C-alpha cells in the first residue's frame, strides 16, 4: 500500500503531530508499505528519505501558542502532481479541515481520484471559524472516506459543528526509544531533586505556574533543580522572569531537545506538565515509557490519557501552591514514585507504535475495500480501542 501522510506540522518543529506522523511513517515502511510524509519547507533540515516538501511554512500565533500555515504558488496543483507521481492509494491528512494542507490536500487528492482519510488532533472549547464556515467545511468533510480523532475530547469538540463517523485512534509512543535509564526513586533524597518541564515554551503550556511554585519547593528542598527542555518564542521572557525572581541557579533552560529526550525523562524524579489546553498528551506517553512519575494538569486531553491511572497525579492547572505541595509530597515519597513509574511503563505498552499503526492500517484497508456507500458506524471510543488486543 502507498500512503501519503500530509502534515502542516512536522520536523524541525516538535510536537504531537510531528511525532505521530513520523512514527506512523516509520512503522508502515518497516512493514513493507510505502509511506511518505508530505509537508512544507521550514528551512534547512536533514530530512528522512520518505519526506516530500511543498510550499513554505509560515508561523502564526493563536490560542496561546504558535501554529503553522503553508503558502505557495499553485499549491493545490503541486500537491495533485505529487500525489499522482507517487501513485498513492491513500492520502491521510493530519489536521483535518485546518488551513492550509487540511483543505488543499483533500481537494488535490480528489482531483487525482485518491480517497482521503483525515485525523483531527486538536481540542478547542469553541471555534468562530467552524461556526461561520460550517456548511462549506461540512461539504469537505462529507467527501472524506474516513475521519479519525486522537481522543474522545477531540470528537466532542468537532461534533459541536460537524457530522462524521469517527474512529478514535490515540497517539503512540516508541517504547524502544523511550525507556527507563536506571535512576532510582531514592536518588532524590540523597542527590539534588530533579524536576522536568519538557515542551514548547508558550503560555498555554503553563511554565509560569511552575516558576511561581519553585520558591515553595526550594524552601523544602533547597537543592531542587527544574530543567526546562524546549524552545519557543516565549523562551526569553521566561528566562528573564526566572532571573528576576531569583531562580537562575534553580531553573535551567536546556533549549530544544530531540534525540536526548529519553535521558531527560529518565533522569528526572518528577515530570511536571502544567499545560492548560491539550487534545491528548504525547509527552505523557513518553514520560510513562521512561518510567518517570508525573504531575499533570487537569484538562480534558490529559484526563483521557490518564483515566484515573496510578502513573500520575492530576491537579488544577493554574494553582502554584497546589503544584508546590504536590511536588514536595511526592519527592518525599520514593515508594509512591516507584509505583507510579512501574504503572507508567506498563500503560505505555498499550500505546506502542506497532499497536497504534495496526489500527490506522485497518482504517486504510476498510476504505480501500468497502463499498462506495458504507453503513453508518458508531463512534469508537478510545477506551474500546485501548482494550483491543494487538
Descriptive report:
Strand 13, helix 12 and strand 14 (312-315) form a beta-alpha-beta unit. The chain has helices at residues 16-30, 75-86, 101-112, 128-132, 134-142, 152-159, 187-190, 207-220, 235-244, 261-266, 282-289, 300-306, 320-331, 334-348, 353-369, 382-386; strands at 2-7, 34-41, 51-62, 65-71, 90-94, 116-120, 146-149, 166-168, 194-198, 225-229, 251-255, 270-273, 294-297, 312-315. The radius of gyration is 21 Å and the shape is elongated. The protein starts with a strand and ends with a helix. Mean pLDDT is 91; it is low at 371-378 and 382-390. It folds into 2 domains: 2-172 and 352-383, Rossmann fold (3-Layer(aba) Sandwich), CATH 3.40.50; 187-350, Glycogen Phosphorylase B (Rossmann fold, 3-Layer(aba) Sandwich), CATH 3.40.50. An 8-stranded mixed sheet has the order 4-3-2-1-5-6-7-8, sandwiched between helices. It is 41% helix and 20% strand. The chain contains 16 helices and 14 strands. The protein is α/β, with parallel strands linked by helices and 390 residues long.
Question: Briefly, what CATH class of the largest domain?
Answer: Alpha Beta
Largest sheet, order of strands side by side?
A: 4-3-2-1-5-6-7-8
Q: What series of H and E elements makes up the topology?
A: EHEEEHEHEHHEHEHEHEHEHEHEHEHHHH
Extract low-pLDDT stretches: 371-378, 382-390
Content of β-strand: 15-25%
Q: Distance between termini?
A: 21 Å
CATH topology name of the largest domain: Rossmann fold
Q: State the secondary-structure class.
A: alpha/beta
Q: What would you say the CATH architecture of the largest domain is?
A: 3-Layer(aba) Sandwich
Helix content: 40-55%
Tally of structural domains: 2
Amino acid at each position: 500500500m502507498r500512503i501519503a501522510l500530509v502534515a502542516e506540522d512536522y520536523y524541525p518543529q516538535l510536537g504531537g503531530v510531528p511525532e505521530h506522523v513520523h512514527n506512523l511513517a516509520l512503522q508502515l515502511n518497516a512493514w513493507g508499505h510505502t509511506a511518505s510524509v508530505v509537508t512544507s519547507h521550514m528551512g534547512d533540515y536533514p530530512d528522512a528519505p520518505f519526506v516530500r516538501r511543498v510550499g513554505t511554512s509560515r508561523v502564526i500565533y493563536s490560542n496561546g501558542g504558535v501554529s503553522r500555515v503553508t503558502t505557495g504558488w499553485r499549491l493545490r496543483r503541486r500537491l495533485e502532481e505529487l500525489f499522482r507521481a507517487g501513485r498513492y492509494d491513500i492520502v491521510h491528512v493530519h489536521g483535518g479541515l485546518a488551513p492550509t494542507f487540511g483543505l488543499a490536500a483533500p481537494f488535490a487528492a480528489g482531483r487525482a481520484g485518491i480517497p482521503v482519510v483525515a485525523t483531527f488532533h486538536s481540542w478547542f472549547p469553541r471555534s468562530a471559524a467552524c461556526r461561520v464556515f460550517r456548511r462549506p467545511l461540512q461539504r469537505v468533510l462529507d467527501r472524506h472516506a474516513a475521519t479519525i480523532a486522537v481522543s474522545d475530547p477531540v470528537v466532542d469538540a468537532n461534533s459541536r459543528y460537524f457530522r462524521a463517523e469517527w474512529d478514535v485512534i490515540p497517539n503512540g509512543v516508541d517504547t524502544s526509544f523511550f525507556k527507563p535509564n536506571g535512576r532510582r526513586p531514592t536518588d532524590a533524597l540523597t542527590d539534588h531533586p530533579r524536576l522536568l518541564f519538557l515542551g514548547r515554551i508558550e503560555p498555554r503550556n503553563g511554565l509560569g505556574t511552575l516558576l511561581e511554585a519553585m520558591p515553595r519547593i526550594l524552601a523544602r528542598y533547597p537543592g531542587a533543580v527544574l530543567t526546562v527542555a524546549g524552545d519557543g518564542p516565549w523562551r526569553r521572557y521566561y528566562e528573564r522572569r526566572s532571573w528576576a525572581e531569583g531562580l537562575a541557579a534553580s531553573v535551567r533552560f536546556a533549549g530544544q531537545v530531540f534525540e536526548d529526550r529519553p535521558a531527560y525523562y529518565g533522569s528526572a524524579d518528577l515530570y511536571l506538565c502544567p499545560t492548560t489546553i491539550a487534545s491528548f498528551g504525547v509527552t505523557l506517553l513518553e514520560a510513562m515509557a521512561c518510567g518517570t512519575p508525573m504531575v499533570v494538569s487537569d484538562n480534558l486531553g490529559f484526563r483521557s490519557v490518564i483515566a484515573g491511572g496510578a502513573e500520575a497525579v492530576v491537579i488544577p492547572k493554574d494553582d502554584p501552591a497546589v503544584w508546590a505541595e504536590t511536588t514536595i509530597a511526592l519527592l518525599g515519597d520514593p515508594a509512591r514514585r516507584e509505583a507510579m513509574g512501574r504503572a507508567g511503563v506498563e500503560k505505555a505498552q498499550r500505546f506502542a507504535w506497532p499497536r497504534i499503526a495496526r489500527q490506522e492500517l485497518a482504517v486504510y484497508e476498510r476504505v480501500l475495500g468497502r463499498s462506495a456507500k458504507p453503513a453508518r458506524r458508531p463512534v469508537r471510543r478510545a477506551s474500546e480501542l485501548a482494550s483491543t488486543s494487538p
